[in-house]
Amino acid sequence: MAQKRIRWKNYNKIANDISEKNRQKFNELNITYKKIESDVKKINELQMSNLDLENKISNMKAISVKQNGEIFRLSNEPRSLKNRKRMIPRTVSMKNGKRFISAVQLSHPHLLQLSQPEEDRCVVLERQFVELKNETETIQVGMTELKTVN
């Protein structure tokens, strides 16, 4: 009987040791599983972030292409304005009621200097629109006064 008790104690001790080792392994597996889940979540977040960044990059490239086109257009605009300036007459006469006003285009393409000889007055105007019906008719100019020189 004493041997049975010793064997039973040894059996229980071995069983408890095995159970404890199993619990430790189970806990280690749970910890590892939680780490894997956490890593998978981080990977998914990084993939989503990567997709967002790729979308932003593609949008920025599209904007860049559009702005490069705008820059190209604007860089060519001074040439076209210079060419247009050559086509507009330097001195024109406009009928304003009964008075005739002499208009001289200044160096800036949107400015006209008007002089009224009978009043001895000179006005610099910003041209907002010019309508040229034909060479023999009057040129109509919509203007805003910038400064008056006496």
Account of the 3D structure:
- With 150 residues, the protein is of the alpha+beta class.
- The protein folds into two domains: 1-87; 89-149.
- It contains one helix and five strands, in the order αβββββ.
Brief sketch in words of this structure:
The chain is α+β, with helices and mostly antiparallel strands and about 150 residues long. The protein is built from one helix and five strands, in the order H-E-E-E-E-E. The chain is rod-shaped, with a radius of gyration of 45 Å.
Tally the helices: what do you get? Answer: 1
Strand order across the biggest sheet?
1-2-3-4-5
Poorly predicted parts = 85-107, 114-150
- Shape call: rod-shaped
- Main sheet makeup: 5 strands, antiparallel
Count of domain modules? 2
The assembly state of the depicted protein chains is single chain
The overall pLDDT average reads 71
CA radius of gyration is 45 Å
Number of strands: 5
List the helices and strands and how they pair.
Layout: H1 2-87, E1 91-96, E2 99-105, E3 111-116, E4 121-132, E5 139-149
Antiparallel strand pairs: 1-2, 2-3, 3-4, 4-5
Observed structural traits:
about 55% helix; 5-stranded antiparallel beta sheet; alpha+beta; disordered C terminus; about 150 residues; 2 domains
